TrEMBL record:
CDD domains per UniProt: LuxR_C_like (cd06170)
Source species, domain of life: Bacteria
Residues of the HTH luxR-type domain: 538-600
Key words of the record: DNA-binding, Transcription, Transcription regulation
Organism: Actinomadura rudentiformis
Full protein name: Helix-turn-helix transcriptional regulator
Biased composition (Basic and acidic residues): 12-21
Matches recorded under SUPFAM superfamilies: C-terminal effector domain of the bipartite response regulators
Listed GO biological process terms: regulation of DNA-templated transcription
Length: 600
């Protein structure tokens, strides 16, 4: 049995056709011989009636929805209905009607309405075995929107079971990519239930089902243990890779960052060498996770590799997603104008392709950029757009959505309202480890917000969460910096905050740490260098140094050149030289060697 025989719309149209009167069915039989579209006058001529006497029959067909009015002609509402009428018409009647039509045309009645067959009809009638490849090509080169119309025609057709299954599999991925995960999951399930397709098709159907469930589950995904996915994916390449993608996100959200990163990188490696790469690319999260743990060079290499794959294999419809990832990397580096340009390009590409699932991430990037620029109105607009996509399950899973809205509320409505929302609908920010891992300034922000709102307990929880992640992953120094920033706020530690201001790779987090340091009340005694508390009182007059001089002194003592220091603290080499002269004078040292002895 073909997997699409359960299509309820097809069944409804068949029932409507059977509900017609005998004259109504006769009208359809003659009309079907004329084409998908036809003139009433031509049908009347063949039936030896007038348009007036046919009017009640035409009204009946229109009410039943079998036909629809299209200006000067009538059109079959569904090509499948016309095919069924022709299939049910005896061959002798078909032959006689063709003769009548030829005589009608020869007698000067005028040509019938010509309707150019659609791509779906051509594939269905003349090359059904090529249909899956054509749909896949449309989806990749022009996007899911271009493929959906063809998919709709093919899904309602008959045909051999393997072809139907393969079309169904491709269609499931197209629907998922266009932001309709529920329909994608159901269609993939029907392909799997039929079970008559080639193993490779069933493999890709399992992949679609897993990914669709992952998108739909959203914040609830962490409640499902990763091992629950294993049994369904044995000996299935695409499905196994899809399961790794899902498990990577589950581990990541649960704070198992090493496992999450490993699985994400394995999935990316596997996807690049499989025919299923086209359907797995939108789900790869290795770039996001590499950026989060501070492996920016590896993330850049992965991004360039993905873009080369897109160009080489002409997967143009995926370009919007990777423009979005590039925008997030630029945003983290503080290149706001370049990030905004990339994110805007991504949204344009996604909308042109109909890749609704990806557009929400690009909107989140633009919202984050607007927040950093102080444009709360634009940020609010972008947030409203991606929230609408989320409500329709048309958004890639991400902790960014709640995190960015929380920052907007804190800025616009104050800490108490932000805390109220954090305890309610935005609790995903603290429920998952993802925000703490992906946003270097998040833990400190939550501490700062909680203290300002009078909730010391919540501030301690945020600091403890950052400490736990850092302790569990000493191989990721970026997490140590994140924890130092949060702990510095909680304990009022100038040393911790100064260290965070220098070591943060994210420009926004570094700027926040610097402002947090400046906001601490001045100390009466000697201030500590950044590297460590002095072992003896009076070791050096550190209190004479400014915060910027302290930072420069620490980096110079560690052996960095002026250019390297300038890059780290985002000033010019000339400014670094100026600060160093002040450090040497105030500490009474004459070289970097002496400075290193003072610090260490």
């Amino acid at each position: 049995m073909p997997i699409h025989s359960e299509n309820p719309r097809s069944g409804q149209r068949r029932e409507r056709q059977e509900d017609l009167s005998e004259r109504g069915r006769q009208l359809l039989r003659v009309a079907a011989m004329l084409g998908l579209a036809f003139r009433i006058s031509d049908v009347a001529h063949l039936l030896q009636e007038t348009a007036a006497t046919l009017s009640p029959v035409v009204d009946e067909a229109l009410r039943n929805g079998v036909l629809r009015d299209q200006g000067e002609c009538l059109v079959f509402s569904d090509p499948a209905t016309r095919r069924r009428v022709l299939e049910q018409t005896p061959s002798a009647v078909v032959h006689a009607l063709r003769s009548d039509i030829d005589r009608m045309l020869g007698g000067g009645a005028g040509p019938p309405v010509v309707v150019t067959p659609t791509l779906g009809e051509i594939l269905r009638d003349y090359a059904p075995e090529k249909a899956p490849a054509v749909v896949r090509g449309l989806a990749l080169r022009k996007g899911p929107a271009a493929a959906e119309a063809v998919v709709a025609e093919l899904l309602g057709s008959g045909g051999s079971q393997p072809v139907d299954a393969e079309i169904g599999c491709v269609a499931a991925h197209v629907l998922l990519w266009s932001g309709r995960p529920g329909e994608a999951r159901d269609l993939a399930g029907r392909v799997l239930k039929a079970g008559a397709a080639r193993p490779a098709v069933l493999d890709q159907a399992r992949a679609a089902q897993l990914l669709a469930q992952h998108v739909q589950s959203g914040p609830q995904a962490a409640k499902h243990p990763p091992s629950a996915l294993d049994d369904r994916c044995r000996s299935a390449k695409a499905a196994e890779t899809a399961a790794k993608i899902v498990r990577a996100d589950l581990c990541w959200n649960d704070g198992k960052l090493s496992d999450g990163l490993r699985l994400a990188c394995e999935a990316a490696e596997e996807a690049s060498g499989t025919p299923s790469a086209w359907l797995l690319l939108p789900w790869l999260s290795d770039i996001d996770k590499l950026v989060a743990v501070g492996h920016s060079d590896a993330a850049g290499s992965a991004l360039r590799r993905a873009m080369r794959t897109i160009e080489a294999d002409m997967f143009h419809a995926h370009a919007g997603l990777f423009e979005t990832k590039h925008a997030h990397m630029l945003l983290r580096d503080g290149q706001l104008a370049a990030a905004a340009e990339r994110a805007s390009t991504a949204i344009t590409l996604c909308r042109e392709a109909g890749a609704s699932l990806v557009a929400a991430r690009a909107l989140a990037a633009l919202a984050g950029i607007a927040l950093r620029q102080g444009d709360l109105q634009s940020a609010s607009g972008y947030i409203a757009e991606y929230r609408a996509a989320q409500e329709a399950s048309a958004a890639l899973p991400s902790p960014q959505y709640d995190w960015i809205e929380l920052r907007l509320i804190a800025e616009r409505d104050g800490p108490r309202e932000a805390l109220r929302q954090l305890r309610g609908r935005l609790r995903g920010v603290t429920d998952s480890a993802a925000v703490f891992a992906e946003e270097p300034g998040a833990a400190a922000f939550l501490v700062r917000l909680s203290l300002a709102g009078g909730d010391r307990g919540l501030a301690e929880q945020a600091g403890a969460r950052a400490d736990q992640l850092a302790a569990a992953h000493p191989q990721f120094p970026v997490l140590t910096t994140t924890a130092a920033h949060a702990r510095g706020l909680l304990d009022g530690s100038r040393t911790q905050l100064a260290r965070a201001a220098i070591d943060h790779q994210d420009t926004w987090a570094a700027a926040c740490a610097a402002m947090d340091l400046e906001s601490l009340p001045p100390v009466d005694g000697p201030g500590p260098p950044i590297a460590a508390e002095p072992s003896r009182a009076g070791r050096a007059p550190w209190s004479k140094l400014t915060e910027r001089e302290t930072a420069v002194a620490q980096l110079a003592a560690e052996g960095l050149t002026n250019q390297q220091i300038a890059t780290r603290i985002r000033v010019s080499p000339h400014t670094v030289n100026y600060h160093l002269r002040g450090v040497f004078r105030k500490l009474n040292v004459r070289s970097r060697v002496e400075l290193a002895r003072q610090v260490h």
